[in-house]
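Re: weekly structure request thread

Next one in the queue (255 aa):
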Amino acid sequence: MKIGIDLGGTKTEVAAFDKAGRERLRRREPTPGGNYTATLALIQTLIRDAEHQLGAPATIGIGTPGAASPATGLMRNCNSTCLNGKPLKDDLQHLLQREVRLSNDANCFALSEAVDGAGAGAKSVFGVILGTGVGGGIVIDGKVIDGPNAIAGEWGHNPLPWPRDSEHPGTRCYCGKQGCIETWLSGPGLARDYTGTAAMSAIDIAARTNSDTHAENAMTRYEDRLARALASVINVLDPEVIVLGGGLRSEEHTS
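Done, posted below.
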């Protein structure tokens, strides 16, 4: 039995699969924002409950925002900032008393799409996560490209390309810079553009576009910024396929 966990900034989801790859269960819970200890406890609870329901132990794989530093093993580049600087893998293995495998969530997404999803058969795939944060993963010939610093594909902390006068200097990002792609294209970034705060969900904004001109304009600006940001990736990587995922994903795949 295999258990996979998607640790997101807004939600944490667990899914279990048998040896034949059949899904046996799925459950989603809100992520305890800003609370590292509570996040560990949630993961432990999800695994415990899943194994109880399955009636069998399972191997554990977790997709995380950011990634562990190859040098220190500590998490970094996580939009769930309570994870940054923490030995997440070690803490989980101590808590669960077994091996745990971690990988960047965008890398997991990109590899899945390259193997049997929208990018199946392509030599190069760029997988995009648009959610609480903005991440990316690169798969070439069926293999994830991590890079020596485990940051390959992290386009969300590049500056928004070709900014308009109204986009200067941009919102300050948790990374310490201003105007990062993530501050514009994440769910909170879209909400901030529409309402001035990050409190509203992107789903609610999209639902208002037919009756609210301000919501429609916010979505139009979002689409323009997304196109500019992806254009900069295309200029460098020129992938065969770009697949969009995450809470703000499009149903259309761009290639």
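The chain has seven helices and eleven strands. The two ends are 35 Å apart (CA to CA).
Next request, please.
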